[in-house]
Design brief:
The chain has helices at residues 3-13, 18-27, 34-40, 54-69, 87-97, 102-111, 118-123, 138-153. The chain is mainly α. It folds into two domains: 3-69; 87-153. It is globular and about 45 Å long.
Length: 156
């Protein structure tokens, strides 16, 4: 899925304002201005569209975790080697940021009229070399983001 779409959908679902977005990027060690943010939020067929690279997207997701959960007091001593940014990684980071359990994830997908079993969901969070690992497709990520919109915006 295109990073800009994910960013735009998250912004809408979580009702984040420009200042919130800039603060979240800063928490992920990315300093961007409002002038730099706005082109990232445009659709790819609009003028002034700027593609959001994987590094910046990952910094946003890491910042979102800190924004929603706070900074880790005692981070793990050993540094993990960074994973490439995939739909699986995006889903995993959103799960952490939103403090979602398996049931929360399944309920959110169900809000978008998308059924998934616990086994199918857990396969997305397994290590790549695990025999039951499965790649998360764009459709699943799109439906999860749609479910987030229903969950967070239609509570009012």
């Amino acid at each position: 899925m295109i990073n800009n779409d994910v960013l735009r959908r998250l912004r809408y679902a979580l009702e984040l304002k420009d200042q919130d977005m800039i603060a979240i990027f800063a928490l992920g060690d990315a300093e961007i201005s409002r002038e730099q943010l706005l082109p990232l939020l445009k659709k790819d067929n609009e003028a002034d569209y700027v593609p959001l690279n994987n590094k910046l997207m990952e910094q946003f997701l890491d910042g979102l975790i800190i924004y929603r959960r706070g900074k880790q007091e005692n981070p793990p001593a050993e540094a993990k080697k960074p994973e490439p940014l995939t739909n699986n990684t995006i889903l995993k980071k959103l799960r952490i940021a939103l403090e979602f359990k398996e049931e929360d994830m399944l309920t959110t997908l169900k809000l978008a009229d998308f059924e998934l079993s616990k086994g199918e969901l857990s396969s997305f969070f397994r290590k790549k070399d695990h025999k039951h690992h499965r790649e998360c497709g764009d459709q699943i990520l799109r439906n999860f983001l749609q479910g987030l919109t229903v969950r967070f915006r239609e509570q009012d």
